[in-house]
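anyone seen this seq b4? input:
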Amino acid sequence: MARNSNVSSVFEDVPTPPPNSTAGAGRCVIAWQSTPAEWLRGVEDSVRRIRDLPANWDSYGARRVHTASIEHAITAARWLSGVVGIVKPVVTATNDGNVAFCWDTADWSLDTEILPDGSFEYVYIHRRDSSRCQEDRVGNLVDVAGLLTKWPG
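predicted toks r here
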């Protein structure tokens, strides 16, 4: 197998979850790129535009997006853009006042809502195997990267 010269290091065996984590320790292997993914700037810009949405932006009573959710979303985008294999998310606002990142492939979709406390609620739908569908709340970006990289088609 050829070595990818853009991969700078591998992070593995997460012994202690990062702050605010609700997950336990475990093994997670992540390949890091030496430079952020090309999609980072566009995602950051999209998140910043969400900051300007007023309350009721959807005409159905949506809340103004929480500043803390915006800040955590920018941090999450920067971190996730360094992980090999994670593609550009679609950035949206939720009616609860949070930022959401969404990924959609032919086989699965993952919707992740970034909460003001820095945790992430997600819904994963596998189109060909409903036994793999799940939803949960995770407390750190290692968990989110694991969600995006562990499910092959």
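The radius of gyration is 16 Å. Helices lie at 40-50, 67-80, 141-149. kinda curious what u guys think
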